[in-house]
């Protein structure tokens, strides 16, 4: 079984940022252009007086130096499926080797101004919850309180046999003991994806760690392609949308149904949907407003411009029965 490889791309030496991430980082502190400001003001008009559920994707973390999967400049990728991971020891070995390298890069990422703006929105009582497709934990690191990690967390590892939960930090130390010198040998070899998948070719000698308790199979706490988001997590995310009077999407192309379904749900309920993303999304046709711009700048503008919830505008009637 062949797993398609993404094409080799170069990274800026020294910074670890891709060209896209560097560009977005430069824009992070930028004010919106006049045209963007007009669109953002239209969003403020739509969202004013409503509490929002916020759905975020990889476009929010590019300012933190984490490359996007599907941004306009991102190379096409085809991530490993759950079936490939559990069914093929060679692919699993390759996955862990690449994850080991990628994790060591991404663990140092810190929240950016966009994450800070989300914290500000929550502190002002404007959010019912943050539903994120990112596994990087940067919303929680920034200080957001109600975060639903839809696709899992890159700081945890699960045993598929006994259900033990491990810190990724601890498993990293275990992998280092099993593979002395490996990180140094492959350093700087290739590109990194938001799920900590590093472009590394030398994986045949990598020793995979088994569960320290039962010798079972370990897997990063991600929702893989071909795997369902756990039901209780989906329920919490729907509850955040149901508690809200509007849905704001920031930095997701909504390529996978796990995120798109919340847009469909909000639209069905007649709640305003605003999408901020650089490039097309699968939810554009359902959105009341789509703004094509960097999400960091947009969220900062909304956080300082939106009026307090309920200020002069009637609240959404509230929870519906589904
Ligand atoms: Zn176990």
UniProtKB/TrEMBL annotation:
The keyword Transmembrane helix does not apply. Binds 1 zinc ion per subunit. Keywords: Cytoplasm, Metal-binding, NAD, Transferase, Zinc. Zn(2+) binds at residues 159, 162, 211, 214. It comes from the Bacteria. It catalyses: N(6)-acetyl-L-lysyl-[protein] + NAD(+) + H2O = 2''-O-acetyl-ADP-D-ribose + nicotinamide + L-lysyl-[protein]. The active site is at 151 (proton acceptor). The keyword DNA repair does not apply. It is found in: Cytoplasm. This is NAD-dependent protein deacetylase. It comes from Arthrobacter gallicola.
